[in-house]
Amino acid sequence: MTCKTVLTSVLTAVLAASAPALALDPGGNGNGKGRDGDRAEARGDRGGGPDRSDERGRGRDRDRDQARPQPVARFQPDDDRGRGRDEAPGQARRNDDRREDRPVRPQARPDDRREDRRLSEAARSPERLVFRSAPGLIDGCPPGLAKRDNGCLPPGQARRIEAERRMERERWENLWRWPAYGGDRYRYRYDDGYLYRMSQQGGLLGYLPVLGGALAPQQIWPDRYDWDPAPAYYSRYYGLPDDYAYRYADGVLYGVDPDTQRIAQVAALLTGQPWTVGQPMPVGYDVYNVPYDYRARYVDSPQALYRYSDGYVYQVDPTTRLVQAVIELLT
Amino acid sequence: MKTSLRPAALPALTLSVLTLALSACGDRDGDAAAGPATPPEASRTLADELGEGRATLGRVVESSGLATVLDGVGPYTVLAPTDAAFGQGGADLTEAGMRAQAAALLRAHMLPGAVTREDILAAIDSGGGQASMRNMGGGVVTFTRDGDAIVAAGPDGVSARLTDEEEPTGNGVIQPIDGLLIAPEPS
């Protein structure tokens, strides 16, 4: 990198880093802690609210948005108002042209690729997904299972099969001791697509559909399991087919048929980490991890660190570790 | 509370940072802590590479339903346990009833972005002997040195060494490891 390039970059960085601080307001909607509080309150409302298990399709999603408080800041550019949650720009579904789940091959990006966009330049419609701090637990038992003191038990023969398989599954119970799930504060038991949260005394606290289980391709999206609409940016960044709507839940981006609610594909894994301009960089990004295609452009230096997360590159102050700018990798 | 930068402060800040940049021009070029790497051939993906030569991990990937993710844009870094690292547990994870466990195990061994050994070592050295990276399962993987080797430890402290050579792909990096970062309970 030449000295001229460095100066240009630094000037750009200063201007860019200041603008998002003005526009994104880290103390307002941009404050992850404040949002968490809102979300917790909203989740509480939902838990005690009416059972929406008989709702279906996009109409259901519109009703949900209108009926409840918005728990998180969502992607809502001006031209997107009035859409259902499953309808987003770039995600228009083509009738009679539904493709099978297909891999999206990484595309080599040519040298003359479009310039990346700092969100400071796009502050009027920042397509940022605001992640929940924890997966949304569902009260009670999944349909067809009876609540017992120690969990949700299947009836009759299924219970016998369950006992035979238990030893095998318990070998991997460590998998569910994730910090996102509360770590050692709870006990978890996996069964037939769902993870059951138990108190240390064994009482059932709720359940959660998990990736590969109830949230596997071809499964119908579980009723009452909440999700957030994915910004159209993710459709562009990950090159996702527009046949499906994309939903984010618990670190996973799913492609879902908005009519049948069937999961068509697992589109991407996301960390769900909150990166906010003016706030400290999240823990767990000590190592430079910028994608190969962007390493020549975003180089760590005494003036700035660059880290990749969930489709964005973030510029960080090496001294204060505060996030200075959010950089979209596509325009 | 707003922490917005006051517009009036911008010129001064800009000038000060430019001054910093000017003073650093003489010795900074080409001396970054991390920088360009040769982009790998884009036609080979993580899914392609994991499906070849890694019998157990390849089957775990298929079982997990995450093959499309590993064949997509990414990028991710996969801490890839060898066949021997799975032991008997590897067979469990390839069964139809264990798809969720396969997906969870895989997420615990995936990191966001492209992480090279050179960058891990640089981070360990600049971080006082250890460096942490978020995994795709909500936990943190901690890297340390053991002589010339790099050791990765999962959230519960279960560790493995990076072994063999790293394998850059078009959508990430494969870092072979000689153990799992989440151990199964003894059966």
Walk me through this protein's architecture:
The complex is a heterodimer of chains A (331) and B (187). With 331 residues, chain A is α+β, with helices and mostly antiparallel strands. Chain A contains 5 helices and 13 strands. In chain A, the strands form 4 sheets. Chain A has a 4-stranded antiparallel beta sheet. The longest helix of chain A has 22 residues. The N terminus of chain A is likely disordered. By secondary structure, chain B is α+β, with helices and mostly antiparallel strands. Chain B has a single domain, classed as FAS1 domain (Roll). Classes of the chains: A alpha+beta (331), B alpha+beta (187). At the A-B interface, helix 1, helix 4, strand 10 and strand 11 of A face helix 1, helix 4, helix 6, helix 7 and strand 2 of B. Chain B: Keywords: Signal. Chain B: InterPro entries: FAS1_dom_sf (IPR036378), FAS1_domain (IPR000782). Chain B: This is Fasciclin domain-containing protein.
Taking the sheet with the most strands of chain B, its summary is: 4 strands, mixed
The number of distinct β-strands of chain B equals 8
CATH fold annotation of chain B: FAS1 domain
Largest interface: A-B, 87 and 92 residues
Measured by DSSP, the beta-strand proportion of chain B falls in 15-25%
Compute the CA-based radius of gyration of chain A. Answer: 22 Å
Broad structural category of chain A: alpha+beta
Mean pLDDT of chain B: 80
User: What is the spatial order of strands in the main beta sheet of chain A?
Assistant: 1-13-12-11
Q: For this entry, what is the oligomeric state of its chains? A: heterodimer
Count up the helices of chain B. Answer: 8
Strands of chain A, total number: 13
Describe the main β-sheet of chain A briefly: 4 strands, antiparallel
Our measurement of the CA-to-CA distance between the termini of chain A, rounded to an integer number of angstroms, reads 24 Å
Helical proportion of chain A?
A: 10-25%
| Percent in helix of chain B | 25-40%
Question: How are helices and strands ordered from N to C of chain B?
Answer: HHHHEHHHEHEEEEEE
Unreliable sequence segments of chain A: 1-84, 88-104, 106-114, 120-126
The shape of chain A is: globular
Residues in β-strands, percent of chain A = 15-25%
